[in-house]
Write a structure and sequence with these properties.
Layout: E1 18-25, H1 42-57, H2 61-67, E2 69-70, E3 73-80, E4 89-97, E5 103-111, E6 117-126, E7 128-129, H3 141-151
Antiparallel strand pairs: 1-4, 2-7, 3-6, 4-5, 5-6
Length: about 160
């Protein structure tokens, strides 16, 4: 099963999404009594790829703390396609989509051990001031610096 419509409409002239992927094995703590990944554990799987993506872009939790900002979830949606099982090796991918606003648009995909799409998802995070908990309507410097590096092609160079 694949999506017919993208989660985020492309921004004209924007660079391609920044991506990061991780492989991991499904463990006993992630499954139910039938050995199938419990639906509530999918966000933890997405977070593994999101953390890798954040490290690539300089959007780490340490960088957020140093900038006194946060990026809590405003939206989160999951489309389950097929189950994942105990001991299965999976690949979790995160895609950061360009946004002109003070928000992070992320998409996720999980491929099972056969390489088939088992799950897709998206999240929208909005920036807040950590001290006041107030939303930031202008993009914080951390996000602007990330976008400058992105426009310069830094995230799409061969490694």
């Amino acid at each position: 099963m694949s999506r017919r419509k993208p989660y985020f409409e492309p921004v004209p002239g924007a660079p391609p999404p920044v991506t990061a992927s991780v492989s991991c094995r499904i463990t006993i703590g992630e499954v139910d009594a039938l050995g199938i990944v419990w639906h509530g554990n999918y966000p933890f799987l997405f977070e593994k790829a999101a953390a890798e993506l954040g490290d690539k872009c300089g959007l780490t939790y340490a960088a957020y703390r140093a900038a006194s900002i946060g990026a809590p979830l405003a939206q989160f949606h999951v489309d389950y396609c097929s189950p994942l099982y105990l001991d299965e090796i999976i690949e979790v991918s995160a895609f950061l989509h360009w946004s002109e606003g003070a928000r992070l648009n992320m998409e996720f995909a999980i491929r099972n051990s056969k390489g088939e799409t088992a799950c897709t998802a998206y999240s929208v995070q909005l920036f807040v001031d950590l001290a006041t908990r107030e939303p930031l309507f202008c993009s914080p410097e951390l996000w602007e610096n990330c976008k400058k590096r992105w426009l310069a092609g830094e995230f799409h160079r061969e490694e």
